[in-house]
Amino acid sequence: MVRRPVAWVVAVVLFVEAFGIAALNWFLGIVVDRQDMSLAGLDPDMMSASSKIGGVVFGLYFALCGLVALLVAIRNRPPAGFGRILLISAAVVHGLLGAFVWGLVGWTAFLFMVVVLALIVLLLMTYDSPAEPADAVPPAAPGPENGDGSKDEGGSPVTSPPAPTTP
Fold this sequence. Notes:
The protein has 167 residues and is an all-alpha fold. It is elongated. The longest helix has 33 residues, at 3-35. The chain contains 4 helices and no strands. It starts with a helix and ends in a 41-residue tail after the last helix. The mean pLDDT is 84.
């Protein structure tokens, strides 16, 4: 019911965020390059290049996470393996970024990070596999033969065998 729309929303939000992060860091790299000022003796060209490279890498990371969410939305199956790990890491990143932006940017950026975090966690939790009902468990296979030729019914390994009787 709610799983596919949440996956679509997460995919769109992560793609928009990937583009926004890459564009913001690219813009900051251009600003540093045009300022041509040194920060504590660092080379301005190196700061500009690292800002651009960092933005592209971080943008690609969010785009890959968005691709995983898009595949979840299309297939209507839970993320597994590497995709699940990517989405969990994206949730952790949004939690950490939310903690940082509260003091640096303000409560609106914090609210955005928390909403994205909640959407990713909702995506991960709505696709959890439900517990199997007791009816779906197959019966146990018959066990080995007893000494009198009758077959053991394969009881639980925790229970003790029946007590011997005297003839």
